[in-house]
Amino acid sequence: MTPNMRRPPSGPPPSAGVLAQYARAYAREAGVSEGRVRAWIAYMIMAGLLEQVTATDGPRFTIKGGVALELRLRDRARATKDIDIVLQESHRHRTDDGGSLPQQVERALEHALTTETYQGFTFRRKGEPVLLDNGTMSLEFAVSYRGSAWTSIVVDVAQAEPSEGEIELVPAIALTEAFGVTGPTVLPCLPLRLHIAQKIHGMTLPPRPGKRNERFRDLIDLLLMQQLVTDYGGLREACETVFHSRATHAWPPTLAVPSHWEAPFARLAQELELEIKDAESAMEHVREFVRRILQA
Question: Where are the domains of the chain?
Fold first, then answer.
């Protein structure tokens, strides 16, 4: 994710076309798609804009999910199609005219993203917000650079859970040397122990009647994330907290592989060039991981 560019930009790109040239060169050297690079830039710029809003008493945001995982694992992580944001709303952006909590969350985020510019980038909401089953609000934004279309990103935003008040500062993806634009140097992310605890919870969540748990990607994420753990005692406490507060199923959970995970897991494992190619072997590694957590 940090290839050596032969000719670093001397300043901000004068147009979206020039920025696209930088993105294509970066993608070739990093061995990833240009679309993924465009998304990385948009995510970092969005985070920088939110950081700017936070500095003026706006709502505080924390990053979790796939983007937080990419920040920690870089190009070892699977590509993510959206950015997950936890919103801890300030009093200044609470609505006085009623409205549900998801509506307040949506208004706060849209206000933060669409009323200011950052490094020549602007954001415009596309379509209507979608309320997901878990209470998360999903919004799509068109991202432009100097008046020209750059990409579109999906932002999933949720009100913070009681355990999500703490942050961990993680190095951001550097933009200046490769692209000539300036973004944040570190980003506030959900602490690793909580991120892993939520992954274990989501992967083992019993499906609602008539539905299936499709969270096979969490199994791959846990294989990679366990390598980062140094504090098993803190991780055990986080797992106990997450499972207790969400109160959907018991800790420790049953760790089984649904049959419908096997084929998509194998395809994604092959794409990511993982040593473990089948879901059952991967789950056995996670079972051992959970045993270590329980013994801490």
Answer: 16-190, 193-295
